[in-house]
Write a structure and sequence with these properties.
The chain is mainly α. It has one domain. Helices cover about 70% and strands about 5% of the residues. The protein has seven helices and two strands. It has helices at about 20-35, 40-60, 60-85, 105-130, 140-160, 165-180, 185-225, and strands at about 5-10, 15. The protein has a two-stranded antiparallel ribbon. The longest helix is centred in the C-terminal third of the chain and has 39 residues, at about 185-225. The termini are far apart.
Length: about 230
């Protein structure tokens, strides 16, 4: 009988289950569709959040598990923003335009990652002392925290279709590769590397779309003046 908990294959002693494999496939599909600017990325994202919730619950990673409702709330918000742009935010086809932030907003989000990441890392470091039955010691609490907070910020910026989301994804994917390697896990760094490649693809595509939209807007403004 098919069982999602069954091990599909092992890599350097690490067994990969069907649940992990399907979760990875859903995650890669979600990022690929986002990179292409497809609204369908959110529909895949709903399934991805549910799969991750199940996976983290299975692995007793309760901190990551409890963050999934926040992630799915951001997914719902992004789904609505992409499909309900304001008049000055929409392309000719009615889709949400790619936009960029000013340095003030970039500094705000960078500060959020640093501040909340430090607090979350402190929580991960100290929580086993308070709730030893619920939390196991995190060997790299701050690295783990910054990757997690960065991921949520990247999701929020993606929901707003800000080009900078891909810069945050670069940092998140690189941090996760370091985190997994430091933890002795060999399969997940390969997955994060695939995410990093998709992030580069997404940044390139969104930047091209942003430049094209700006050229179109400039051309229309010139026509109006004439």
């Amino acid at each position: 009988m098919f069982d999602i908990d069954n091990i599909v294959f092992s890599l350097a002693g690490y067994g990969v289950s069907w649940l992990e494999l399907v979760s990875v496939a859903a995650g890669l599909a979600c990022v690929f569709l986002a990179a292409k600017g497809k609204v369908a990325n959110f529909y895949v994202g709903y399934a991805y959040n549910v799969l991750l919730f199940m996976l983290f619950m299975q692995k007793h990673l309760y901190s990551s598990m409890l963050l999934q409702p926040i992630s799915i709330a951001i997914t719902i918000y992004g789904n609505w923003r992409w499909t309900h742009p304001k008049d000055d935010e929409s392309t000719a086809g009615g889709a949400l335009k790619v936009s960029t932030m000013d340095w003030l907003h970039r500094g705000f989000w960078a500060g959020m990652i640093l501040f909340i990441g430090m607090l979350w890392g402190l929580f991960l470091r100290e929580s086993p002392g308070f709730w030893p039955d619920a939390f196991q010691p995190d060997p790299h609490p701050y690295l783990d925290a910054f990757a997690t907070v960065g991921m949520l910020v990247a999701q929020m910026l993606s929901a707003k279709k800000h080009l900078e989301c891909w810069i945050v994804w670069f940092a998140v994917d690189t941090t996760q590769i370091a985190l997994y390697l430091a933890s002795g896990i060999l399969f997940l760094p390969l997955v994060s590397l695939a995410y990093l490649i998709l992030a580069i693809f997404g940044f390139t595509g969104w930047r091209k779309e942003y430049k094209n939209d700006n050229l179109t807007t400039t051309a229309k403004a010139a026509d109006i003046k004439q």
